[in-house]
Amino acid sequence: MSLPIDSKGKFRTAAVLALIVPDEINYFPRIVLIERTEGPVSHSGQISFPGGKREGDEDLWATALREANEELGIPADQVMLLGSLTSLYIPPSNFMVHPFLGYMNEVPNFVLNESEVKRVLIPSINVFLDDKNISLELFKSTSGATIHAPSFKIEDVSVWGATAMMISEIRALLITE
């Protein structure tokens, strides 16, 4: 099956960082997500991992680290690469996104780029392992279409779309039968 890539067969390349940080109180790791600011760009107002467009022939891991630093002030030299997740094509923005899983020994002091990030969410990974936090909801895409999609409920928001797919992969890696 071919991907529904734009009419020229080209897509833009991006990378995101799924950053795992410790929780010294509950002892379950947490994962860093952002709520993007509202605006005229694709994915505005959505919950996502920090990340963005690759610049030039930059290494994809370097892209994920650069974007996490630009959006949240995460120091690249303190993030340990755990591995990569499955790359994912996102039709509304025509991006092929390459997600990376990273770890820091402590929760960083976030410095938000307020033009891109409204707030940081750091839910426990346990939230994503609990089936009661998974549901099927209606969402309005950036193209205006109404979509019935699986989502994860965290705090006061729903995580859906590409980010939910990436979290599902992390969840699958953690669940043992």
* Binned strand content: 35-45%
CATH class: Alpha Beta
CATH topology (level 3) name: Nucleoside Triphosphate Pyrophosphohydrolase
Task: Give the N-terminus to C-terminus distance in angstroms.
Answer: 31 Å
Structural class designation: alpha+beta
User: Please, what is the CATH homologous superfamily?
Assistant: Nucleoside Triphosphate Pyrophosphohydrolase
| Strand and helix order | EEEEEHEEEEHEEEH
Overall tally of domains? 1
- The counted number of beta strands is 12
The CATH architecture name reads: Alpha-Beta Complex
The residue ranges in which pLDDT falls below 50 over 5 or more consecutive positions are none
Task: Estimate the helix proportion, in percent.
Answer: 10-25%
**What Rg is obtained from the alpha carbons, in whole angstroms?**
16 Å
Number of helices: 3
Structure description:
- A hairpin with a 2-residue loop joins strand 11 and strand 12.
- The protein has 3 helices and 12 strands.
- The longest helix has 14 residues.
- Strands 1, 2, 5, 6, 7 and 8 form a 6-stranded mixed beta sheet that branches.
- Helices cover 18% and strands 36% of the residues.
- It has one domain: Nucleoside Triphosphate Pyrophosphohydrolase (Alpha-Beta Complex).
